[in-house]
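Handout, section B. The chain below has 135 residues.
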Amino acid sequence: MAKLVIVVDNVAAVRDTLCEALRTIYEDRIRSGELAVEGVPDGPSLLARSAAKVPDLVFMDVDMPDVDGIDTFYRFKQQFPAATRGVFFLTGLAGVPSTNQRLEQAVMDGAGGFMSKPTSAASLHAVAERILFSR
């Protein structure tokens, strides 16, 4: 069964750009059926999609309306506790002390990590390799 990567971002252009970068990096693995990359606009969509197949890696924006990425992580953790190491946050708020504290707590509670946005394809690739293919 293919490994699944889900990008969660409420900004369609950002979500599409991240998905396209991952699809380009992993073109051969996607073509062979080893990997799939999908995008969803928000936390509730991630939880609904995960009910059908739990993702192996989630790149999740922190700053989203209604339910932010960190709160979504804790909901995801309740439903899919074994998959939390595959949740990796992307944030434009990395310099905000309250956000940093929440991100650090989420990592202590099992998230895979976080990095600032904008990010590079090389950074996405490094995280994906570590989480998807180094187990």
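Note. The chain has one domain: 3-133. Compare this with the example in section A.
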